[in-house]
């Protein structure tokens, strides 16, 4: 029997195996069976819809200023009121949310990717590679992320927000990479990795084809929780003017503006603070339910 | 054991040196002290600016490595250089360090003890009303950034103070200036100022620790040694406190080292928003004013604090876990 025949036979046999559920379906099933997962997912979807479809519903853009209404309370004209500058709160808040969501997602994906690669390399090669990489990890753990990002803030001006995302990601990966490293060390002794190594597969290929995919559940959960960590860091930095730079807006800069007028104009603060809290809450709920869904041994105790 | 400790300490010292140097280089490269003097009216002659910047070791016309060597030479002798205003960084930070340490210590002790107790109690009464409420509340608190929480507290305090004939909490500063009165009046005044920053700092810690401690405690509660302890006649309360809580505390102590960095950052926000004149406030201000030397000194302090925290968590680990001491 040639290899092509074998593949053909496997395909034929595969037809009969349709009944066995795929891993994706099992995980998705577990995820949506938990109330927490459903609420989180619904909230997150709603936030994304609001941030990306919402601005088209209003006639005000985020750069528009209404010079007939300064610090006006919510009305039919301005759904969520206006700021001191006459900007429409609804428009700027949604713009800030878009920015925060994109920054958070990108930083989380890059950060987790970095964690996976560094951890897997350190755990797979051990020796000097491991010592060097773990030393760098310790160094970044010692450096307070907020401080370094704040120092570098002058470099993020003039639309360099992608650099900001990269720097944010650079401070998100350390703890995960330590977990990935220790898991790689135990994974390395498993039969399929041994088999691949003895067959002469290149170490790079083993890491990217066998080690990292086997840690995917950990990495997916981590990436989700990193989104909320990144959003929180971004907000705090932008609050002090160290993150997203004007004329662009982000949740942080809006909250900083709103906090000054919050006592007598509550709408300038509570809409964007509330949306931020709901977004982070939704991401955390999704991440937590994903962790339970991926781990069949986890106690269903929530 | 001594050799191990020595190597560990040496590694810590190297990490602090590298981290501080890196922070200095970054700050010297990214911040621009010259901007403080340019664009003034009447304009200051460039030669005067140069002379002033050279005096402060902040002149960007001097190669960065040379500035670094001058700065490092001072640091080795225990002098962190001068601020942009001309004052000594050492004196300024010595004044501020106490404020920050007071705030951190109170927030940390209150936050971690309350968090551990809440988590442990929630685990013992799993699925009870307390458990559900505390889990929900901690999820909610973890979604609120410190900057939003601090502002929410201020808004709430202003509202409450407005309802009462006399303010009960103050939202700004460490104590009222020019207050006359005895020791008690001053103590009450300080507590009134301390309440809001402490809440803003410790609420997040309580949420993190209670969730973590609850999970650890649940793992331990089902363990055989708890059943054995109660089987040999220990009361449930004693078994839970002496055996379960102690065992479940070990991972939380390890976790402490990881949260300390974020606690420092939280302190920065809290100090800045509540107007406490501590290290954190100075960090934000020094970046606004392009004060390279202050930034480097504060990074050194932060790196040192994080490493002391991780050393402390090692020691606590050894106290709680006999295997570490013996092994």
Automatic annotation (TrEMBL), chain A:
The chain crosses the membrane at residues 39-57, 101-126, 133-155, 161-180, 211-232, 267-286. It is found in: Cell inner membrane; Cell membrane. Residues 101-287 form the ABC transmembrane type-1 domain. GO terms for cellular component: plasma membrane. Its main location: membrane. It holds the Pfam family OppC_N. It is a multi-pass membrane protein. The keyword Cell membrane applies. One of its GO terms (biological process) is peptide transport. InterPro entries: BP-dependent_transpt_permease (IPR050366), MetI-like (IPR000515), MetI-like_sf (IPR035906), OppC_N (IPR025966). This is Oligopeptide transport system permease protein OppC. It comes from Planomonospora parontospora. The gene is oppC.
UniProtKB/TrEMBL annotation, chain B:
Pfam families: BPD_transp_1. One of its GO terms (biological process) is transmembrane transport. InterPro entries: MetI-like, MetI-like_sf. Residues 97-313 form the ABC transmembrane type-1 domain. Keywords: Cell membrane, Membrane, Transmembrane, Transmembrane helix, Transport. It is a multi-pass membrane protein. CDD domains: TM_PBP2. It is found in: Cell membrane. This is Peptide ABC transporter permease. The chain crosses the membrane at residues 12-31, 103-124, 136-160, 191-209, 244-265, 295-320. It comes from Planomonospora parontospora.
């Amino acid at each position: 029997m040639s290899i092509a025949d074998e593949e053909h036979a496997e395909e034929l046999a595969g037809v009969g195996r349709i009944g066995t559920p795929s891993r994706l379906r099992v995980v998705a099933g577990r995820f949506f069976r938990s109330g927490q997962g459903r609420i989180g997912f619904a909230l997150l979807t709603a936030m994304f819809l609001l941030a990306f479809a919402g601005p088209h519903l209003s006639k005000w853009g985020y750069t528009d200023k209404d010079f007939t209404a300064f610090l006006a309370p919510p009305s039919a004209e301005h759904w969520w009121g206006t700021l001191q500058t006459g900007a429409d709160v609804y428009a700027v808040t949604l713009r800030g949310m878009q920015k925060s969501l994109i920054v958070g997602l990108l930083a989380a994906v890059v950060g987790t990717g970095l964690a996976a690669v560094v951890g897997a390399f350190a755990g797979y090669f051990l020796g000097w590679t491991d010592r060097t990489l773990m030393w760098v990890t310790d160094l970044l753990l010692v450096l307070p992320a907020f401080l370094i990002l704040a120092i570098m803030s002058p470099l993020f001006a003039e639309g360099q927000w992608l650099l900001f995302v990269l720097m944010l990601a650079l401070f998100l990966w350390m703890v995960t990479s330590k977990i990935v490293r220790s898991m790689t060390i135990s994974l390395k002794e498993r039969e399929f990795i041994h088999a691949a190594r003895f067959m002469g597969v290149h170490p790079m290929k083993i890491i990217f084809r066998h080690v990292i995919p086997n840690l995917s559940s950990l990495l997916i959960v981590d990436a989700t929780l990193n989104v909320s960590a990144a959003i929180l860091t971004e907000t705090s930095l932008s609050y002090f003017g160290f993150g997203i730079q004007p004329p662009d807006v982000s949740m942080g800069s809006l909250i900083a503006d709103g906090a000054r007028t919050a006592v007598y104009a509550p709408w300038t603060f509570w809409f964007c603070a509330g949306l931020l809290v709901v977004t982070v809450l939704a991401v955390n709920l999704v991440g937590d339910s994903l962790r339970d869904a991926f781990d069949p041994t986890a106690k269903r105790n929530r | 054991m001594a050799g191990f400790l020595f190597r560990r300490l040496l590694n810590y010292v190297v990490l602090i040196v590298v981290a501080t140097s890196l922070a200095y280089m970054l700050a010297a490269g990214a911040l621009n002290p010259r901007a403080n003097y340019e664009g003034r009216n009447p304009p200051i002659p460039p030669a005067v600016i140069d002379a002033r910047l050279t005096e402060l070791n902040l002149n960007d016309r001097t190669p960065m490595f040379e500035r670094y060597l001058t700065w490092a030479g001072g640091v080795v002798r225990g002098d962190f250089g001068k601020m942009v205003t001309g004052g000594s960084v050492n004196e300024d930070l010595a004044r501020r360090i106490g404020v920050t340490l007071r705030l951190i210590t109170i927030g940390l002790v209150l936050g971690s003890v309350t968090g551990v107790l809440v988590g442990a109690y929630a685990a013992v009464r799993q699925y009870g009303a307390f458990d559900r409420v505390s889990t929900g509340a901690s999820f909610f608190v973890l979604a609120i950034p410190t900057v939003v929480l601090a502002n929410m507290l201020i808004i709430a305090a202003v509202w409450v103070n407005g309802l009462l004939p006399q303010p009960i909490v103050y939202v700004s500063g460490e104590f009222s200036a020019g207050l006359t009165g005895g020791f008690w009046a001053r103590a009450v005044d300080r507590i009134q100022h301390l309440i809001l920053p402490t809440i803003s700092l410790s609420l997040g810690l309580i949420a993190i620790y209670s969730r973590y401690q609850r999970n650890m405690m649940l793992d331990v509660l089902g363990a055989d040694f708890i059943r054995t302890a109660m089987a040999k006649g220990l009361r449930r309360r004693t078994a839970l406190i002496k055996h379960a809580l102690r065992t479940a505390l070990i991972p939380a102590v390890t976790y402490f080292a990881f949260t300390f960095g974020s606690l420092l950052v939280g302190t920065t926000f809290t100090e800045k928003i509540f107007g406490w004149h501590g290290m954190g406030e100075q960090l934000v201000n020094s970046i606004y004013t392009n004060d390279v030397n202050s930034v480097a000194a504060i990074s050194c302090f932060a790196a040192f604090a994080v490493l002391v925290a991780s050393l402390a968590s090692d020691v606590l680990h050894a106290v709680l876990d006999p295997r570490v001491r013996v092994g």
